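Have a close read of the entry that follows and walk me through the local backbone shapes. See right below:
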Amino acid sequence: MTTTTDHAYGYADLPRLMGRMTGAEKHGPAATSTLDALWVLYDRVLSVTPERADDPARDRFLLSKGHGPMAYYAVLAAKGFLPVDWLEGFGSYDSPLGHHPDRVLVPGAEIGSGSLGHGLPLAVGTVLGLRARGLTDPRVWVLVGDAEMDEGSNHEAVAYAGPAGLEQLHALVIDNASASYARPGGIAARFEAAGWSAETADGRDHKALYAAFTAPHPGRPRVVVARVEPKESLREPRIA
């Protein structure tokens, strides 16, 4: 079985690809909330392909919001990182596609996930590791959830990355109104207070997401807060 596909899949195919994943998945809204942002990243922003998955000069994408990974798997399949027929075994005992991605089993996955709050610190460490190797061009993206920002480990990473000027670091926060604690001024304000370049965008508007993802931010890490519908209202993938 290969890890590439001979079919050119587009955004309109993603709901169908997600529909091939069945089983006792409990985090459908968590997956649906990330679909548009993931597609824009992999389709128009990230410099990484299946053929360059091990290239030291590639961009890195870290999925910290690892629960409900169906959208992530659908995008990876659409882009040829993994076979589309793997999707039908999602979550089964012998499938490489678990309810949290495993970097050893899922082609294209940079990290495994489990407990929330690890992805942003890992992204900080990844940037520092790239710098130590003299690799200053690859960008590191990490997708976190708004509720995940309740974790103290993320706040420590935010507080460090801004003053350290980690320009290669990009955080994408999916805001589906699931956080337990309000933040004065909103999520973006927390990052801005630590010296980040920050923007809030409509998480369903591909043009707005692309503009926010590619805005220049010299000398500072970048965060984009992508607002989508509250998770209680997210049930089925939607087409923009």
Q: What stands out?
A: Helices lie at 14-19, 28-45, 70-78, 119-132, 152-164, 187-193, 206-214. DSSP finds seven helices and five strands in the chain. Confidence is low (pLDDT under 50) at residues 1-6, 236-240. The CA atoms of residues 4 and 234 lie 30 Å apart.
